[in-house]
Amino acid sequence: MSTFLQDLRYSLRQLFKNPGVSLAAILSLALGIGATVSVFSLIYSVLMNPWPYKGADRIANIALLDKSGEGQGYGLDGPQIRELAKAKSLEYVVAFNGWSLTVTGSDVPEDVQGMNFTGNVFQMLEVPAMLGRYFLPADAPDGQDPQPVVVLSYKFWKRHYNGDRSVVGKAIQLVHKTYTVIGVMPPHFGFLGPDVYLPLKLSGSISEQYGLFVKLRTGVEPDTAVSELQPYFQEFRKQTPDHYPKDYKKIALQNLSYWVLHTISKTLYLLFGAVGLLLAIGCGNVSILLLARGTARQHEFAVRAAVGASSGRLVRQLLTESLLLALTGAGLGVFLAYWSLGFIVARLPEGSFPNEADFHIHLPVLLFSVGLAVAIGILFGLFPALQLARPEVQTTGSSRYREE
User: Is the confidence at residue 4, as pLDDT, over 60?
Assistant: First the structure.
C-alpha cells in the first residue's frame, strides 16, 4: 500500500511538472467522452427507445400516399371508424380530435390544450396512471354522451395544481362545464402532447371528421394489415369523396417513430459520427502524448534502473501515471456528459422529439467510453513502460554525454 501511495504521489508531481501535456491529455479524453456519451444518449432516447407504451411498434396511423409517396390529409367520420374497427388485423381503432380549452371558474382563466379520445385509447397504450385511473370505454359508451371526467397530463398537474396529490376526485371547469379529475398520467406519458385528456363521443354525422390511430394484433405484419384495410378506404372514398385527396393512390401504416425518423434522424446520426470521431481523435492524442512523454523520459528511467529500480517498479510507475491521466479525463468527461445532455436538449427545436422521450445518460455507452479511456491509458502507458523498463543504461548515458 505504501508503495502504491509513493507511486501516486510521484505521478501527481509528474502531472504538475508537465502541466501542458497533462492538461492536453485530460481535455482530449474529457471532450471525447462527454460529447459521445451525451449525443448517443440523446439518439437512444429519441430514436431507439422513445415510447413507454406496450407494443409501441404495433401502434400506427394510416396514411394516404400520392404518387410520390407523400402523405395526404384526410378524415374519417364516426360510421366509418366503427366500420374500420371490424377489421380482423386491428386490435384497437382509436379516434380523436383536439380543442383549445379554457379553465374557467377561477379568478384568472387559463388556456389549455385538450384532446378528446374514444374510451379505448389508454387500453391501447397500456400505461397506468400515476394517480387515480384513466378513463375506459365504460366512461364513453358508443352512441351516448361520455361521463364528465378528465385525465390530467403530468405537466399540467404540476403547473396548475402544483403537484397536489389529492387532486383526484376534485372538480375542474373547462369552458364553463364541470369535470371530475379521475387521474394523472406519469411524467413520460405525453401522447400527442395535450394538457388534458377527455372522452370522445363519436358523432353519427358524416360532416364531423376525426383523426385516427390503430394498433395491429400481435403477429400481424403491416403488409397484411394494409392488404385488408385498402378495400375499406376505397369504399370510404366512394362514400365521402370530398374528404379524400384526388391524387391518393394507396394507404400505408406509419408507426409512432415514423415522423421522428424522417425529420431529425439523419442530423442526429451525423452528429453522433462527428462526436465518435472526436472521441477517436482524443484517444489518439492521448496515445501520442503518452508515447512522446515516455520517450522524453528515457534518461530518467535509465538512471533509476542504474541505481537499482526494478523493471516491475518502472512499469508500475508509468502505468500509475497513465491511469491517473485517463481516470481524471474520464471523470471530467462524465461530468461534461451530464451537463451537455441538458444543454443540447434545451436547444432542440420544439416538436423535433417525442413528448415521451426520457432524456438520461445511457449507462452502457458511459461505461464503454470510460472503459475505452482506461484501456487507452493502460495500452499506451504500458508500451513505453516495457520499452523503458530495461533500458540500455550505458548506451543512454553515453549518448547523453556525447550530446552535451
Answer: no
